[in-house]
Amino acid sequence: MNPKYITSISELDNLVGLAPKEREMMETVTDLFPFRSNEYYLSLIDWKDRHDPIRKIVIPDSRELTTGGSADPSCEKDYTKQPGLQHKYDQTGLLLLTDVCGGICRFCFRKRLFMSCEREAVKDVADNIEYIRKHTEITNVLLTGGDPLTLETRRLEAILRELREIPHVNIIRIGSKMLAYNPYRIINDPDLLTTLSRYSTPEKRIYLMAHFNHPRELTPVSIQAAEALRHAGVVVVNQTPILNGINNNPETLTALFRKVSFAGISPYYVFQCRPTTGNQIFQVPVEQSYEIIQKSWQTCSGLAKRARFIMSHATGKIEVVGKTTKHVFMRYHQAADSVNIGKFMVFRANPVARWFDDYDKALTDFEPKKMWLF
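Below the sequence we write its predicted structure tokens.
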């Protein structure tokens, strides 16, 4: 099976049948934020349920047109060293290989790639490979976009081959939602699996950074595709943002953490949804997200709760590590300025804060009272 891709509301209407007003609304949204999906993923939606979480992941919603947010909330432009290459953290190079995805998530933090005529991804990566070759501090490279698995296998193979020829590049990561959107891309292409097997070695692994946002995305065929990747030597991990109306309750997150861990996919990051243009309907307050995660872990094994709760801020990856009724505790899990890595911060609680910038200056003189446990 090779599911047909659908890129217009008229095609969607022909497939599932939309009410005239619903179709008109969706077309208005796609004037600004494009639509893309495929028959396989759309088949996971319960079309009788207007609140279906899979529907919310990929189907346009008029509330996306609410003002606010930024096209580049993590200031990726500030860390772009040359077209198609970002170098924010010393040891990590990021290559934007394409502006095409298997589907367009309505909450995508990089949706500017689908909206703007200004291209950030590049086809010719020769200059960027040379940059990585010269910067010996780069030990791992993230291939992203867009979704690298939308590329032809032979083009992906050429990039992997060149990266593997660089001695100091030990880890190659591929950011992809294809396991959820179109697992047949993996199952039906033995050349892809052979290529990944060739360049994922016992000493230097390839990691597939999967994006399962809801447990219903883990279908038998997606689990089969993940197993095929593992047989090819690829390590599969999962990351997801907390998303209002999709996974912002402990029961759903518990089911997601359990299901991925049962399938041998390690939970890696849970992200705070970035304040991107059009994303307001998906955002959950930071402290509420933290509480949801903590409750979701109450019936999870240690293997199912290895993820860190992270805000991918302009200054670095900020982990929310705890809270009380009055204070929130954070640390820099990773930082653009390496001196900040591990820096601990305490803020006054702000139950409506949706992003790091919504908190006041850290309480540098905060000294909690000693607590004795007997």
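Residues 369-374 have pLDDT under 50 and may be disordered.
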